[in-house]
Amino acid sequence: MSLGEPLVELQAAPLGLDVPVRDVAILDPEDPPTAAAGELVLAIGARGRAALPALRAAGRAGAAAVAVKLDAPGQADALREAATESGVALLSVRRETRWEHLDSLARAIIAGPDAPDSPGAPEPNAGDLFSLAQTVAVLTNGIVSIEDTSSRVLAYSRSSDSDEVDDLRRLSILGWQGPEPYLSKLREWGIFQHLRSSDAPIAVEPHPELGLRRRLAVGIRAGAQPLGTIWVQEGAQPLAPLAEQALVGAARVAAAQLVRRRRELSADVRLTQTLLTGLLEGSTGPQSLATHLGLDLRRPATVLAYSAHTTEALHRSDVTGLISVHTAARHRTALLAPIESRVYVLLPELPPGLPMTTVRGWADEVVTAAREHLGVPLRAAIGSTVEGLSQVPDSRAQADRILDAMGRGGVDLDVAALIDVQAEVLVSEMLALLQERGGLRDPRLTALTAYDRRHGTRLAESVLAWLDALGEVRVAADALHIHPNTLRYRVRRAEQLTGIDLAQPQQRLLAMLQLRLPADE
């Protein structure tokens, strides 16, 4: 078995490691414990000791292995003993592993690298498609499955309520392929003909007499070549208003995944990411990426940059999937690259004269969807629109400047271009320079903030509020919630302690900047 340490751990192998695995069986907790010779049995819903009947039944049937999730480390001992007695291998599955991911990966391994289209099995590396299906489910408020051109299920979203799932969905998932009586109806209604010839989504109206709920579908296509279909079934709630738009983007993302998979996915993706990251960082020229993806070097391009309060939130697969799907829905050739604490989206080959408001709208859709669907607050910065791919590093640098300023505070926007925050960006960069180069700071102001730390006073804060209010004592006092006379005293006291003369314009200017530095500076 070659699933690897990240997903499963071998607990027992009484017959050795060379036992062939011929198929995968999913054992539902409500079904009687059965198995067949050579099967890998996935004991879903039966944790720990509850999996003992399945383990013993698998041994009697000559199954190859049983995969179980454990509630506590000590449970492995009893299961290992039963596995050894039964002559069947025991695999413990990590708690966070999704059964559908493990199932698809196991089937892909059994099919082998030369048989991606073997009947009944998802394509290799289908985990990416499962993530995509889940993202589409969140964006559409529906129940999603992704199928190949033979209506074999490649991936599907999770559904917490089985009552929401109609017969077509249920039978498709159980059999990894759409049942023929339903497929013939879809052919009769012209659904498949539309999906093969058009990029536009199509609605399939409900047919209660057939056990079918309303659904949307979109073809996955590479040019004129059909690759598959994404289906979204409506559950207890109506589909989201922008469900069709999300499907268009998802189809483009899925097409890229399926095409790359046919061209040896891992190597191709690594190369694309390496070339894109190199271009964004300025370490690689644009020609390699343009040649690799067939992009026009001389058409306009823009970089969008996204950040979150935590890097972990930003780099979650559902967040990056959401960014990818939304952006692909708006721009066919968009490319995404996570770099350190940010996610960058390159929009190459933009139409000449594309308004900034259009790109801003795309970014705002992503930020809004992340907040509403995933509960993740994102910030987005729009880099400059440059004349060609060779200037992409300049667009990325501008987007970074904007995000830096947004991260330091003082910018009450979720999406911004430089024109929105020009002053904030420049002041932010001046403050960064003051932080880095202590020799540019006035030691008297440094002494004032140190005095506040030692004595628990608020002199520096009061001086800054007074300066920000252009000397209007009552305005500054109201902002600090103190009496005007208290503010006057604090400003005089600050001048006495430090020798600063706030009547001098240059000293006022420096104080307005330096007092904005963090207090520990």
Automatic annotation (TrEMBL):
PucR C-terminal helix-turn-helix domain location: 459-517
InterPro entries (alphabetical): CdaR-like_regulators, CdaR_GGDEF, PucR_C-HTH_dom, PucR_C-HTH_sf
Residue stretches in coiled coil: none
Source domain of life: Bacteria
Domain CdaR GGDEF-like: start-end pairs: 288-404
A Pfam family matched in the record: GGDEF_2
Similarity comment: family membership: Belongs to the CdaR family.
Protein name: Transcriptional regulator
